[in-house]
Amino acid sequence: MGSLPTGTEAVVFDCDGLLVNTEVCWTVAETALFAAHGHPFGPEEKALVIGRTVEAAAEAMADCFGRPGAGADIAAELLERVREELAHGAAALPGAAELVRACRAAVPIAVASNSPRELLDTALESAGLAAYITHSFAADDVPSPKPAPDLYLTACEALGAAPKRSVAFEDSATGISSARAAGLYVAVVPSLPGADLDHDWLGAGLDDPELLDWARELGRDPVC
Questions:
Q1: Which of 52, 79, 80, 203 lies in disulfide reach of 208, CB 3.0 to 4.6 Å?
Q2: Whole-number Å distance between alpha carbons of 134 and 164
Q3: Kindly report the CA angle at 25 between 181 and 48, in degrees rounded to 5?
Q4: Whole-angstrom Cα distance, residue 134 to residue 12?
Q5: CATH for 10-21+90-216 (3.40.50.1000, 3.40.50.360, 3.40.50.1820, 3.40.50.150)
Q6: HSE (CB half, 13 Å, CA atoms) of 116?
């Protein structure tokens, strides 16, 4: 399909905003946090924090708020607000469960997320995806999270797959940079409309029929 190889050895998914509709939870928390510090929250502010770890997002917020050095306090507040939002539950995004199951039937799969372990596990469980994901890697599982390649390299190693023969599914520039640095093919479903993102495949959702057709062909053709 397009530029995604069907001979891939493994598929690695991002979580937030890609598999699970947690970006709503993050946006509510971020909007409230910006408001508490006297700042509006719009597309530019969202682009500043999307895909980042809690710590990196908090550092960006601290700079935006004119409070350099306050990253740790802001991170704690952001984490608590997101935790409260996630407690209400988060649903799998359209097509996510079907695509995960189809890929898993053919090749090893994993999740690589910039969320802390606590939030990653909560999101996957809430969305009903935890049963299908036997390997997951959170920001606190590696020395350097996204945009560094560590998460994707760790996932591929655990799955016994070569990164150059694996496919990453991402929604943000931060995640794409990580996957590219690790050497994976990248399929992108942007969380932010209109974003100009590097990709091998680009679509509006995981429910694109082309993706399911591709997943059903996995392993049948050699990677070039």
A1: 203
A2: 22
A3: 45
A4: 12
A5: 3.40.50.1000
A6: 13
Is residue 50 within 8 A of residue 192, CB to CB? The reply is yes
Separation CA 184–CA 200 (nearest Å): 10
Taking the chain, what is the end-to-end CA distance rounded to the nearest angstrom? Answer: 13
pLDDT digits (tens, 9 = 90+) for 195-217: 789 999 999 999 999 999 999 99
Task: Please write the tens of the pLDDT for every residue from 115-135.
Answer: 999 999 999 999 999 999 999
Residue ranges covered by each domain of the chain: 10-21+90-216, 23-86
Which residues neighbour 21 within 8 Å (Cβ) at sequence distance 6 or greater? 90, 91, 92, 93, 127
Q: What is the helix (H) or strand (E) element at residue 185, kind and residue range?
A: strand 185-188
Burial-class residue 1 by CB neighbours within 10 Å (0-12, 13-18, 19+).
Answer: middle
| Measured distance CA(51)–CA(17) in Å, rounded | 9
| H or E element, residue 136 | strand 136-137
Distance of alpha carbon 29 from alpha carbon 84, whole angstroms: 9
Question: Model-level pTM greater than 0.85?
Answer: yes
